[in-house]
Amino acid sequence: MHTQTESLIKACKKGNQIAQMQLYDTYCNAMFTVASRYLNNEEDAKDAMQEGFLKAFVNLSNYKPEATFGAWLKRIVINQCLDVLKKRQIEFFDVEVSELQITNEDDWNFDTNVSKKDILKAIEQLNEKHKIVIKLYLIEGYDHAEISEILEIPIKTSRTHLRRGKLKLQEFLKPKYNEARY
């Protein structure tokens, strides 16, 4: 861990508010970006980010240096965003998976004519369940076991939401691919 961050964390654990502000200043932009991926409203994203920081400072004694502080904080902020979405009554339910063939999720081959911006825009068009699973998997890098734990859904449901979201993404991006070919 970076020694400056390490010393700030030690000072925060002792209740040093200046250290808390320095830690906040160091991570606030990155955590706002993370929150904005899940909550489209800027004020909601700011609120979730700040709430995440408050939870982090209150629970700083639970922080273990095996993970970077940024990764630990990011998980708290994502969980805070998911809490906001759950309050909006977005239900992640166990979907019927028997008819769905799960294939290798690592084949995220998008045509080179499709930009990252196009992909992110297409992700925003997905329904909430698929959008959140795809963001957790593709952008945040969580695996299905972690997504299952975060969203409190079975691993099979996480895989199903990812697969269906991926198929929808490919559908949304097909017109872009075809435009670029002609």
Structure, briefly:
With 182 residues, this protein is mainly alpha-helical. It has helices at residues 3-13, 17-38, 42-58, 69-87, 116-125, 128-139, 144-151, 155-181.
Instruction: Give the fraction of residues assigned to helices.
Output: 55-70%
Please report the first level of CATH classification, the CATH class of the largest domain.
Mainly Alpha
Series of H and E elements:
HHHHHHHH
Q: Based on DSSP secondary structure assignment, what is the total number of beta strands?
A: 0
CATH architecture annotation name of the largest domain: Orthogonal Bundle
- Mind telling me the CATH superfamily name of the largest domain? RNA polymerase sigma factor, region 2, helix turn helix motif
Estimated structural class: mainly alpha
Total discrete domains = 2
Question: What's the end-to-end separation, in Å?
Answer: 50 Å
- Beta strand %: under 5%
Overall pLDDT score: 82
> What are the low-pLDDT stretches, counting only 5+ consecutive residues below 50?
95-105
CATH fold node name of the largest domain: Rna Polymerase Sigma Factor, Chain: A
Q: What is the number of helical segments per DSSP (H or I, 4+ residues)? A: 8
Most strands sheet: none
